[in-house]
Design goal:
Order of helices and strands: EHEEHEHHEHEEHEEEHEEHHHHHH
Distance between the termini: 63 Å
Largest sheet: 4 strands, parallel
Oligomer: single chain
């Protein structure tokens, strides 16, 4: 049996209606209930396949519980990791990149310094700021509101600079936005669910809260409604929400997105009205059932927006992750070696060490496959041009150590002490591909000592 849970706070009408609607459908193997939380152990799954989150933005304990649940397979709506990171100013920034119109908006530092900071904490902040530039960009009247949060808390209309100073003085440590006022002809609030469900409602934000959802409004041009519908999808696909509302103020036929960071939007029957309430209850129930059917235990069942998914598909991010898997010193040497020679130009094709590293000992020519003395590379080609001992001092073929006495591969000089790649004999001078030892060691492993000493193989001793 898969459980769908709803986590909620002070609201009453929506949570119970949501639970009842799912259970009324009698979907085999699926049941809905209010989430019950007792002891929360790290890394332990919950009993829920799906949880609808309506309150964690106000209760940090619930947010931490939901992250653990999501990590262990619960499909949490909305994604608790993204919701923790998101805020209104970023929403506007992303909207600009997505091509959705938004009012001119700037970010303001808090009136009071955050706890445990001093003047020295703000030495990177220019003083005074370019206030005239801000006023020219935004204009007056304007709206000032917190850069994160919702519920119409701490929202101010400001008419001029003096009015701004006075009202900003009331905001304490809140980081605020100053946003252009859109003198609108029409205003809409839109429910969004699960990637494709959109419900557009006429809205009047200047009315008392319980009278803001307009009923019996006049006809609206289809082209405008289609544009709003598409903007709702574009914004939420970019952000990655499953359950959200988007508000639009329409000026001169252009819908400007005003507020679209509402992960637990109003769904109370007493404010949204019966028709809108019925829509959100039915469609959120269908969404939860769909997600429960798709949910798989032991996997992450969260929704991520295109903003995040596009980042992780970029080559720059992949390169960063690959670098983290390699030690810093190794990465530095690998980068240098890669510029000197490619894999094809390094040691012989079959036995070659990877281009980024010196030939590892494990890939040195095994003793049993070492070339017999009579087939050894001619002395004149054995040693690198600059460092190797002259041909006349090379160990005579007849004194070469028999294959059975050759130094085992594990005792070969460790890769990190091999001669640097830039001093290795060019690949074109290496011994024949099938018989020779790797080019970087310039001599068969069984015979020659490292190039610097050029002593007969029998007397050579690997460096430690």
């Amino acid at each position: 049996m898969k459980k769908i849970g709803i986590l909620f706070g002070m609201e009453s009408s929506f949570p119970q209606a949501f639970i009842d609607r799912i259970n009324e459908k009698k979907v085999p193997g699926i049941v809905a209930e209010a989430v019950q939380i007792d002891m929360v152990k790290q890394g332990i799954p919950t009993d829920y396949a799906v949880i609808i989150d309506r309150i964690s933005q106000d209760v940090p304990f619930y947010k931490a519980y939901l992250k653990n649940a999501a990590l262990n397979g619960t499909a949490v709506i909305n994604n608790p990791f993204w919701w923790s990171a998101d805020e209104k100013f970023f929403n506007n920034c992303l909207a600009v990149h997505l091509g959705v119109p938004v009012p001119n908006t700037v970010l303001l530092p808090s009136k009071e310094r955050p706890d445990d900071t001093t003047e020295k904490s703000f030495r990177n902040l220019k003083f005074p700021m370019d206030w005239q530039g801000i006023f020219d960009y935004v204009g007056f009247p304007a709206y000032m509101k917190p850069h994160a949060g919702g519920g119409w808390k701490s929202v101010y209309k400001v008419t001029d600079p003096q009015d701004l100073w006075e009202k900003h003085g009331e905001t304490g440590q809140l980081v605020m936005l100053l946003q252009e006022e859109i003198q609108f002809d029409l205003y809409f609030r839109c429910y969004y669910l699960n990637g494709d469900r959109v419900h557009i409602m006429q809205y009047e934000p200047r009315n008392p809260h319980h009278l803001r959802y307009v009923t019996g409004g006049g006809p609206v041009e289809k082209k405008l409604l289609d544009t709003i519908h598409q903007y709702v999808l574009t914004l939420n696909h970019g952000l990655g929400y499953d359950f959200n509302t988007v508000e639009f103020a329409v000026r001169d036929g252009i819908p400007y997105a005003i507020d679209f960071c509402n992960g637990a939007p109003d769904a109370d029957v007493n404010s949204v009205g019966q028709e809108n309430f019925d829509w959100i209850v039915e469609n959120s129930a269908l969404m939860a059932i769909d997600r429960a059917k798709l949910q798989q235990d032991g996997q992450v069942n969260l929704t991520w927006g295109s903003f995040i998914s596009n980042i992780f598909q970029s080559s720059s991010i992949k390169t960063s992750f690959q670098m983290k898997k390699t030690e810093k010193k190794t990465a530095t040497k690998a980068a240098a070696t890669k510029k000197v020679a490619t894999t094809k130009k390094a040691a012989p094709a079959k036995k070659a060490a990877p281009a980024k590293k010196a030939a590892p000992a494990k890939k040195a020519a095994p003793a049993k496959k070492a070339a017999p003395a009579k087939k050894a590379a001619p002395a004149k080609k054995a040693a690198p041009a600059k460092k190797a001992a002259p041909a006349k001092k090379a160990a005579p073929a007849k004194k070469a150590a028999p294959a059975k006495k050759a130094a085992p591969a594990k005792k070969a000089a460790p890769a990190k002490k091999a001669a640097p790649a830039k001093k290795a004999a060019p690949a074109k001078k290496a011994a024949p591909a099938k018989k020779a030892a790797p080019a970087k060691k310039a001599a068969p492993a069984k015979k020659a000592a490292p190039a610097k000493k050029a002593a007969p193989a029998k007397k050579a001793t690997p460096k430690k």
